[in-house]
């Protein structure tokens, strides 16, 4: 049974990741849904899920099939990506190659291979008590903090500060994960060309 804390954190994690989608789509070529394109690679930011006292979300990138013609080359591309990402300071909980079959018009079938990274963060790792106390103190002393949510579920000012920090933390960690995925794609593509 989900807790109120888990439900609220998931709601504000969703807001953080949605803001990240908007940021990425405005910085790069926007695509449908939660996707964008950069350097001929499509990236997607998944929605968060509250699972076992943690917030989980996925980021993925399409394997550039137009540059890699064989299944063996695509598998090699994935293995190189995985090898680099497993050494990351922000190591994903799982790294998988996923094949998605997409039928947009019911008469054409498109297969896409993706590198899918799943991240999982315990609820208590999504905010720092010292940061919350500092921001709470500033608000009490009259400083305006426009990032504070107007949530009827947060009964105290400190609760609103916590939810704002959760939203910002997930957005920042999502951005770091995406930036790293983009850099790894760039590195692996370059190694295949030369």
List keywords for this structure.
elongated; 7 strands; alpha+beta; 194 residues; seven-stranded antiparallel beta sheet
Could you say which structural class the secondary elements and strand pairing correspond to?
Answer: alpha+beta
Low-confidence stretches: none
Rg, alpha carbons: 19 Å
The major pleated sheet works out as: 7 strands, antiparallel
Plain-language structure description:
The protein has helices at residues 4-27, 71-85, 129-140, 157-193; strands at residues 29-30, 35-38, 41-45, 49-51, 54-62, 94-102, 110-122. It has one domain (4-193). β1 and β2 form a beta hairpin. It is α+β, with helices and mostly antiparallel strands. The longest helix is centred in the C-terminal third of the chain and has 37 residues, at 157-193. The protein starts with a helix and ends with a helix. The mean pLDDT is 89. α2 crosses α4 (157-193). Strands 1, 2, 3, 4, 5, 6 and 7 form a 7-stranded antiparallel beta sheet that branches.
Topology (elements, then pairings):
Elements: H1 4-27, E1 29-30, E2 35-38, E3 41-45, E4 49-51, E5 54-62, H2 71-85, E6 94-102, E7 110-122, H3 129-140, H4 157-193
Antiparallel strand pairs: 1-2, 2-3, 3-5, 4-5, 5-7, 6-7
Quick summary:
This protein is α+β, with helices and mostly antiparallel strands and 194 residues long.
């Amino acid at each position: 049974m989900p807790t109120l804390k888990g439900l609220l954190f998931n709601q504000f994690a969703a807001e953080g990741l949605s803001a990240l989608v908007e940021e990425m789509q405005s910085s790069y070529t926007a695509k449908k849904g939660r996707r964008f394109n950069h350097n001929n690679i499509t990236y997607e930011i998944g929605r968060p899920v509250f699972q076992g006292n943690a917030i989980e979300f996925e980021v993925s990138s399409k394997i550039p099939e137009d540059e890699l013609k064989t299944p063996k080359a695509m598998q090699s591309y994935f293995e190189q990506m995985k090898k680099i990402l497993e050494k990351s300071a922000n190591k994903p909980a799982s790294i998988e190659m996923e094949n998605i079959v997409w039928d947009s018009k019911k008469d054409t079938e498109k297969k896409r291979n993706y590198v899918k990274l799943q991240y999982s963060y315990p609820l208590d790792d999504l905010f720092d008590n010292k940061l919350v106390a500092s921001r709470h103190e500033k608000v009490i002393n009259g400083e305006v903090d426009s990032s504070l949510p107007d949530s009827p579920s947060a009964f105290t000012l400190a609760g609103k500060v916590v939810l704002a920090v959760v939203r910002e933390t997930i957005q920042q960690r999502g951005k770091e994960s995406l930036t790293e995925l983009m850099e790894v794609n760039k590195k692996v593509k370059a190694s295949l060309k030369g």
